[in-house]
Amino acid sequence: MRLPSYSTAKSAFTSIALMRLGQKYGTGVYDLLIKDYVPEYTNSPGTWTTVTFNNALDMATGNYRLAGFEADEGSSCKKAFLDAETYNDKIKTAFNFPNNKEPEQLWIYHTSDIFILTRAMNNYIIQKQGGVTDIFNMVGDEVYAPLHLSAGTMTSLRTDNSVTGAPFGGYGLFWTQDDIAKVALLLSEQNGVIKGIQVLYPEMLADATQKNPHDRGLDTTGTPVFKYNNAFWAKQWNPSEFKQNTCTFWTPFMSGYGGITVVMMPNGSIYYYFSDNEEFSWYDAVDESTKLKPMCP
């Protein structure tokens, strides 16, 4: 059965794309400025002159209207973005947020930020590799294909309802069970290595998956409070939350609309759950996984 990715694409496509660019061209790509690669920023009521690729991936551009949990995401402005079919309409509505803070100060959930970043990365690789390149096809050729993902994973929803349109970035992929398991293993146990080749920049991957204690990411709004780093969510677990566990640890996870969760545990377990009923039920699975192997050495 093939199921929609929804926002797991933010982690499994857009974040992977930036990690791949970092591995190929160096970590300076993370600090590239959105304004230098997406000229439509000039029509924005916000401030984009200092927003980096990494700021956009963290959803911390400082450009937003409402600071409540996913308040902007549920607004009429975001509906206009999601409904837009043409590239011109989609990029215009993506930039339609005023400035309220400096970058990297506050996490605000914005699928539109991921679309902007995807476009910026696309224009960056066109400069590096030539005009026939596409950021989604790069990830498909250099990450998905070596993982032997299914043929249906090699396409993305795009603007203008066209195979030559701009990939959405924040959603628009389709997974099988095998696909999402392979991607999750690449990001966790395999540490971004495929067949002995490092395809994803390891330090950025470590930050995203909570293996770097010095970079946990930003606090999310709402309850409970998670961490968000490089388009990955994370929850910290304490011994009091478990029957079996006696240590504190982190579980990074991908999350998608409707009830999609892909959890990567430090004991090597992967738990994925796809629902269309707004159910995000995975805490008990983490507790049960401790029976397979302890979470901490």
Task: Describe this structure as you would to a colleague.
The protein has 297 residues and is of the alpha+beta class. Helix content is 31%, strand content 12%. It is built from nine helices and ten strands. It has helices spanning 8-25, 53-57, 76-83, 87-94, 111-129, 135-144, 177-187, 202-208, 283-289, and strands at 3-4, 174-175, 193-194, 197-198, 218-219, 227-229, 232-237, 249-256, 260-264, 270-274. A six-stranded antiparallel β-sheet has the order 5-6-7-8-9-10, covered by helices on one side. Strands 1-2 form a two-stranded antiparallel sheet. α1 (8-25) runs parallel beside α5 (111-129), α1 crosses α6 (135-144) and α3 (76-83) runs antiparallel to α4 (87-94). The protein is globular and about 55 Å long.
Q: Using DSSP, what is the number of strands?
A: 10
The major β-sheet equals: 6 strands, antiparallel
Please list the strands of the largest sheet in the order they lie side by side: 5-6-7-8-9-10
| SSE topology string | EHHHHHHEHEEHEEEEEEH
Q: What is the share of helical residues?
A: 25-40%
N-end to C-end Cα span: 37 Å
In terms of per-residue confidence, which ranges show pLDDT below 50 for 5 or more consecutive residues? none
Fraction in beta strands = 5-15%
Radius of gyration: 18 Å
Q: What class do helices, strands and sheet pairing give?
A: alpha+beta
Number of helical segments with 4 or more residues: 9
List key phrases describing it.
297 residues, 12% strand, six-stranded antiparallel sheet, alpha+beta, 9 helices, globular
